């Protein structure tokens, strides 16, 4: 049985400007040309800010990581604050449809982004019925301070607790390998959403199911604990 679905935010619910913010902030610390989308997905996505800053500087050859990481992380935050205020992001329509459908089936839905910026973004997304995307969710542990970031399961464990559901009855929806590994480490099922052609990375991380659009998920089957894609016929229904 499945009782709750835990959503990562960046790359799952919103096409957020984190990657762009990191790249803009890099000037003067390392060569931004090395900060590709593949680099971001593999080494930065899903990690807390300072960890992401350290990983980036280490891998891009900055010689004084310890001295520069905090300043780099701070500059990245200033850039993303500006990008969010300018509404330089979009919510993924398939993710909104999934959140609405899950609510209708009676499953609890929880937000669990490592980022402290998740709320600011979700509160700016207005649905056709004038609710905010943020208001659909039963609980939100985004940006909570945990001892370690993903792939440690601490944040997802907090999310499960927030709706009083044991980990074995939770499904995590993630776009980053670190998040998939965090779900596994926490004893939760995981659904990988591969929006960037990175199915293989998510499978290698151990995702129980990988889709390229959240519309492929069989929501009706989820309630009885079955994680699978919809049949081809059903997927073609309007
Ligand atoms: Mg993500």
UniProtKB/TrEMBL annotation:
Source organism per UniProt: Methylorubrum extorquens (strain ATCC 14718 / DSM 1338 / JCM 2805 / NCIMB 9133 / AM1)
GO molecular function, one term: hydrolase activity
Lineage: Bacteria, Pseudomonadati, Pseudomonadota, Alphaproteobacteria, Hyphomicrobiales
Family, per entry: Belongs to the HAD-like hydrolase superfamily. CbbY/CbbZ/Gph/YieH family.
Cofactor(s) demanded: Mg(2+)
UniProt keyword list: Carbohydrate metabolism, Hydrolase, Magnesium, Metal-binding
Highest taxon of source: Bacteria
InterPro entries noted in UniProt: Beta-PGM-like, HAD-like_sf, HAD-SF_hydro_IA, HAD_sf, PGP-like_dom2
Stated name of the protein: Haloacid dehalogenase-like hydrolase
């Amino acid at each position: 049985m499945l009782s709750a679905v835990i959503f990562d935010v960046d790359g799952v619910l919103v096409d957020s400007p984190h990657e762009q913010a990191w790249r803009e902030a890099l000037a003067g610390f390392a060569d931004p040309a090395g900060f590709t989308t593949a680099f971001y997905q593999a080494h930065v996505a899903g990690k807390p800010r300072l960890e992401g800053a350290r990983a980036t500087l280490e891998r891009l050859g900055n010689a004084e990581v310890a001295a520069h990481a905090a300043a780099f992380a701070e500059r990245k935050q200033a850039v993303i604050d500006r990008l969010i205020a300018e509404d330089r992001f979009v919510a993924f329509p398939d993710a909104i449809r999934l959140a609405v459908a899950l609510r209708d089936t009676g499953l609890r839905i929880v937000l669990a982004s490592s980022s402290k910026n998740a709320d600011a973004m979700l509160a700016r997304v207005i649905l056709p019925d004038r609710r905010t995307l943020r208001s659909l969710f039963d609980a939100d542990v985004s940006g909570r301070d945990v001892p370690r970031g993903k792939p440690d399961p601490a944040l997802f464990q907090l999310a499960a607790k927030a709706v009083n559901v044991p980990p074995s009855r939770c499904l995590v929806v993630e776009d980053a390998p670190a998040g998939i590994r965090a779900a596994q480490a926490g004893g939760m099922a995981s659904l990988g959403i591969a929006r960037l052609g990175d199915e293989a990375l998510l499978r290698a991380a151990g995702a129980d199911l990988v889709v390229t659009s959240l519309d492929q998920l069989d929501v009706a089957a989820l309630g009885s604990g079955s994680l699978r894609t919809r049949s081809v016929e059903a997927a073609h229904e309007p």
